[in-house]
Amino acid sequence: MYEYIKGIISFIGPEYIVIENNGIGYRVLTPNPFAFSKHEQEQKKVYLYQHVREDAHLLFGFATAEEKRLFEKLISVSGIGPKGALAVLASGAPSHVVHAIEREDEPYLIKFPGIGKKTARQMILDLKGKLDHVVSDSLTGLFVQEEGEPASSANAALDEALLALEALGYSPREIKRISGRLEKEETMSTDEYIRKGLQLLLG
Fold this sequence. Notes:
CATH 2.40.50.140; DNA polymerase, domain 1; 5-stranded antiparallel β-sheet
């Protein structure tokens, strides 16, 4: 129903952003909300996917049309819901996911929360050879901090990143395993902590 929305990002949280358009604030779930910058009066385009179920109408948002297309492909696989697809996209490297599917790399795929061996095998069966038009160079910059965007304070940024990882479905035990290593890193922005955390979780 919706292709995209253009408006001002008025809120960024661990699970979603709020984008304001014509006086209405739309709550949009995204793979990594902190990949979106919040600058007053700056218009942003967010590509949308509307997910309808009996108890809720949800909007999912993406920085690029390619990212949205990969999300749609992922949720077409039996066993992968929208939350699972967001966790895969949050890795910031959709091209790695596509390559893993093409190489039938099940050990890589099962590292994502909610994806076991059966679902990984289903991803390969359903999507192998069908994703060549999905990935483009524009997806590789998902976690790049925009020039001039101030970094958050170290502790607040790390706390937000850990909350975002939890929202993606990683267990407290998994997050605790990497939090100490993240604390030792030099000061980063929230999205950089998320990227590093995902590298450790998927490594």
